[in-house]
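Example record used in the benchmark description.
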Amino acid sequence: MMRFNYTAKNKQAEVVRDVIEADSRQQALSQLRKMDLTVVSLTEMDASTTTGVTKRLGETEGLSSDALKPAKTPFWKKDLFKRSEKVKLKDMAIFCRQLAISVNSGLPLRDALAGIHEDMDVPVFKNILDQILVRLHNGIPFSKAVADHPKAFSSVFIGLVRAAEESGSMGETMSRLADYLESSDRLRRKIASMMAYPAFVAGFFILICMVMVFFIVPQFQDIFSDLHSELPALTRTVFAVNSTLVHQAPLIAVVIVLIGGLFYLYRRSPGGKLKLAKTQLKLPWVGECIKQYVIARVCRCLAIMLKSGVPIATGLQIVSKVGKNVAIENSLIEARSQTVGGSNIADSLAGTEIFPSLLIRMVRVGESAGRLPEVLDNVAGAYEDRVENTITTGMSLLEPIVIVIFGALVLLLVISIYLPIMTVASHV
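Model output (structure tokens):
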């Protein structure tokens, strides 16, 4: 029998700290859930001294985001020609769905992976599965095998696999993860399809402007210079700007590259990364849309992790990196620290001053009712609908704006060329 120190919260959102005995960590989690307690942390006590922590759920065996990070390889030791292990979201969703169906049908995990590997038509993913199967054959757990491929499998995926291994609910967990990935893929494809037309129009007009600037306008400039007549002010201004762009193009390109390089270095620095993340969230329309999208992903992932038996503290630490925004990541880490210290989750999120009041109110309701995973699922759905509606509205406005702006620019160039011709014709 194993002894565990636990920190949890009851239905009244009161912090409860005690010791529980169970045959395994998963059994301890199950007993605590039957007691209507929301687990914040669960720590195994040393068997010989019954004091001191020897194993914390989610930290020593792969669920902590820090533990899930691969060891950093120095730049000079990296294989620059190694094939990237990035897997498309669509392919990962299909993999999770196939794995869920196979495992729920009673097929052993290794056999299920072997079958998926045989039918896999994505070379990168097929190679990854081949390496995972070798490790499974050598007795390595599935969670540790996928942790060796952080470019392909996210920390959320690895954490959920670890929890599923402990609870024996791999099929159910993969099914939830497949639902999440499929919904994320649908939203991304919808955003891409809505942006395709404005992007095509903008690219077409840019091409026209470049042709006029580098080929058409210089020819008319030479023609008008031979006439030795005074040109209209608009034409002189356009010709002056055009000459600068044509003759100083190499210098302008160098300046743009330097500015881009400095921006890249600034974005890579800790202070710059945080500043840009905060600025990103404050941008009109775009910032709010990004925040809603990140909150939807965080809530969905956290709901899946809580349903799979992952403690709140571990779940918050893992999902902090889901949105890839340092400001939100730091806020979630801060909320995790306050939660471990005994604060309510809602109050911890409110203290960061970055999460909206709707999310905080709903989390407080979920904590009080003991139904936090279900509430988080509902919040995620609400924010996903908001993001979709916001993007749909924005794209419907962006299309005419792009056409008007680039159309006006082309019209300006055309008028500047034909204005001298009409002026000369009027004097004939």
